[in-house]
Amino acid sequence: MPKVRRNDPCPCGSGKKYKNCCMRRDQINESRERNLSELEAALLNGLFEYAQAVRFASDLSQAFTFYWGGAFELASAEVLSGEDIRRMFEWFFVSYRTQSDGRRIIDFFLEEKGPELIPEAREILEAWAQAIPGVFRVLSTEGEEVSAYDCLRQEELTIHSPWAAQNARPGELLVGYLYDQAGEKRLMMMALLLPGEYEPGLVEFVTNAYNLYRDEHPQASWDEFLRENAHIFNAYLLSPKAEALRSLIGPGTRYDDPAIARDKLRAWAREKAQAEQRQAGREPARPREQRTAAGIILPGAAEPATPSQKEGPSRPTILIPGRDL
Question: Which one of 121, 173, 212, 275 has the lowest number of neighbouring Cβ atoms within 10 Å?
Answer without folding.
Answer: 212
